[in-house]
Design a protein that fits this description.
The chain has 245 residues and is of the alpha/beta class. The protein is built from eight helices and seven strands, in the order βαββααβαβαβαααβ. Helices cover 44% and strands 14% of the residues. The longest helix is centred in the middle third of the chain and has 28 residues.
């Protein structure tokens, strides 16, 4: 019987890459997303809105019951909390509702899903991989809510690893810029994107597959002595000094 993995945000570019990588590695992949877009790499897809899972008790019960049923008795080898919400607004203009939505998807949903799937994760001696962000440690104007939620997700990763040890391992991946449609939508021209790529010591921005490979590693037995850590998949940019000259 195939080992099962649950991937949230499975319809996005990074989600598709993660699902495809796990599928190619022989896993039974259960994708979770509120969108009905391309579901490449998924053996089963569950349409669910993570904001509603957090806010609506009846909806949460129905969605999580369906998810646990899809896993069956074999358990859950890995839960990849990949779904994220990025609402950009200067803090002077940001609303409480924007912060609440951001934290619902980026922090509260990973907690709810991990808690719900804990019996299945324990049965499989599984692991949780949280997709954080470089913004957890280095950010820029307008990203305050997003950056705070990702920093909290990194802290959640450390704390949860202690709470669930040794039955379940918890780690995080923190990517820098990744070449997705959402990233490209924020640039007016290819020249600006090229300058961003050149600014990374690696000489390029990340690819969705870079994040997927890191998630596969942290979910595998090869990382069996790693828990409570955050792997920065950032092309070296976290170490670069940002001088004005």
């Amino acid at each position: 019987m195939k080992a099962s993995v649950v991937v949230t945000g499975s319809a996005g570019a990074i989600g598709i890459a993660i699902c495809t990588a796990f599928s190619n590695a022989g896993f039974n992949v259960i994708g979770v997303d509120k969108l009905e877009g391309e579901q490449a790499g998924c053996d089963e897809f569950i349409r669910a809105d993570l904001e509603r899972i957090v806010a609506d008790e009846e909806y949460r019960h129905t969605a999580l019951t369906r998810l646990n049923s899809a896993l069956g008795d074999a358990g859950c080898h890995a839960l990849v909390n990949n779904a994220a919400l990025q609402l950009l607004n200067p803090s002077g203009l940001a609303t409480l509702a924007e912060w609440q939505r951001t934290f619902a998807v980026n922090l509260y949903a990973p907690f709810v899903l991990t808690q719900s799937l804990l019996p299945a994760l324990t049965v499989a001696n599984g692991s949780v991989v949280n997709i954080a962000s470089i913004h957890a440690i280095q950010s820029k104007p307008g990203f305050c809510a997003y950056a705070t939620s990702k920093a909290a997700l990194v802290a959640f990763t450390r704390g949860l690893a202690l709470d669930l040890a040794p039955a379940v391992r918890i780690n995080a991946v923190a990517p820098a810029a990744v070449d997705t449609p959402m990233l490209r939508a924020g640039f007016n021209d290819e020249d600006a994107l090229s300058r961003l790529a050149a600014y990374h010591p690696a000489g390029r921005i990340g690819a969705p597959d870079d994040v997927a490979k890191a998630a596969i590693f942290l979910a595998s037995a090869d990382s069996g002595f790693i828990t409570g850590t955050t792997l920065f998949v950032d092309g070296g940019i976290a170490g670069r000094l940002h001088d004005p000259i």
